[in-house]
Amino acid sequence: MDAAKIKSVLERAPDIVYETDADGRLTSITDTAGPILGYAAAELRGRSMFELVHPEDRDTAMAGFQESVRRRDTEVRTIEARLVDKEGETRFFEMHRRLHFDAEGQFKGGEGIARDVTESRRLQESLRLHQAIIAASDDAVAIFDCDGSFIENNPAHERLLGYSVEELRAANTPLWCGPEAAARISTALRDSGSFRGEVDSCTKDGRTLHIDLSVFPVTAEDGTTQCFVGFARDVTERKREERRRQVFQQLREQVLLMHGEADLDGVLKALEEGLHELGIDYQNCGINLLDTSTDPPTMRSRSTAPGGGWMESATPRAVTSVHDMWKRGEATYRPDLQADDPFDELPYIQTIASIRAVVDVPFSHGTLALNSTTANAFSESDLLLLQEIAGVLSSGFQRIDDLRRLALSEERYRTLLETPDFIVMLIDPAGNYIYVTPRVREWLDVDPEDFYADPKIGERLIHEEDVAAVTTAFERGVAGQNVEGVEYRWRHGNGEYRWASGGVYPIRGEDGGVHT
């Protein structure tokens, strides 16, 4: 190829091709320098190559150049350099250069090709930054190819599920979720290109987690999908707390409907469903109701099993044991009766099934009892939930007692509960909400659970000009007075204040003191 053709090819190339003399001055440079550096080729010829180098890099570049000349280095070397264009902007270049020496070893000059890699460097830096963010993210991140095969994950993903990247790559089917969840995700990706939802995920150690998952595609410039990225967040505790709130709200609502022991069926059904929803496994569940007015005390038991009735205990030893546990005032857990049977229960408790674990949790009128055929069946968190349930049962049975002594007639109290224009709140003297009718949602757009969680919510909802009157009425009620006709304003969720007229009616305990 002749010189004219070679020059034509070089001029059309996207790179800058140059030659320098022994002093480093540009003797030849292609016109491609114009679009890249902003200089015409004629402006650069005769200038030192080092004038274009970034001032912070110039000394290092010159020292490296001089060392190459000293060593008579004739190999093609690749170096990276920052050059400054005509507008003063810094650009990154990858340069391939070679030095020429004559037969006597005298340096004659050099030639090279310079490629602008500024955009590539920026993309690399952006990629590095994104990789660092993903690696440091508390959310689990995973990358899959278009066939669903695993490519990469971040440390949070491995901490969440326990699987290493090698294990996930080697698996023929997804290890982290079941076939139903995998099918849901696959269908969504096929139909809409992305997925957002909550799925159950399987950890390496066998636990089931509830995760909030978002999957979206990464596309090339031509719009084709290159891979999918998934972000996962563990919402197991949040879902568990939501279930707990629902279970206790349903249980409280059933407790409020109790007017006597005959109304216990709804409570027991809510209890059975609630224990299942909370994930507490058991063989039998029921309540032991003590009558301490007799000497010795007597006990009746009732199971949560449908259709069950009260059974009078014919085993004095069992009555004595339950009475002792009730008086202790805290949960009595026997994790494995075969290993330790402190109340000598095995002879009568295993008549139907081989019971291993038993727990009795005291409430106001007896104990909530669960057993299991599995040793160590109940965890610390289970025991805490059972104690909370026992507290709700206490409020129910205390309410039965309260209703018997209620100053208002049974008919008036029932009317009060069932009248749609009323909201009933049971509040203890300390201001804690024991029960709030669900109709409060329609009145104020506030959930009953919000009252249970925050005793101060009433003060924030009531108009500041009416707080004193309501507080005085409540204090009079705690002092034992019936208070009626208190008018005040409280705030709906939309910010609008609404007028209400209310009353405070004290409920007394056996000691005559007001407790609700």
What's the helix and strand layout?
Layout (H helix, E strand, L loop, with lengths): L2 H10 L3 E6 L4 E4 L3 H5 L3 H4 L10 H16 L6 E8 L5 E12 L5 E10 L1 H19 L3 E5 L5 E4 L1 H7 L3 H6 L8 H14 L2 E8 L5 E12 L5 E10 L1 H21 L7 H14 L6 E8 L6 E6 L7 E2 L3 H13 L3 E3 L11 H4 L7 E7 L2 E7 L7 H26 L4 H9 L6 E3 L5 E4 L3 H5 L3 H6 L3 H5 L5 H12 L4 E9 L5 E8 L12
What does this structure look like?
The structure is a single chain. It contains 18 helices and 20 strands. It has four domains: 3-121, 2-Layer Sandwich (Beta-Lactamase); 137-234, Beta-Lactamase (2-Layer Sandwich); 239-405, GAF domain (Beta-Lactamase, 2-Layer Sandwich), CATH 3.30.450.40; 419-504, PAS domain (Beta-Lactamase). The mean pLDDT is 84. The strands form five sheets. A six-stranded antiparallel beta sheet has the order 13-12-11-16-15-14, sandwiched between helices. A five-stranded antiparallel beta sheet has the order 2-1-5-4-3, with helices on both faces. Strands 7-6-10-9-8 form a five-stranded antiparallel beta sheet. Helix 9 (236-256) runs antiparallel to helix 10 and helix 9 (236-256) runs parallel beside helix 13 (380-405). The protein is of the alpha+beta class and 516 residues long.
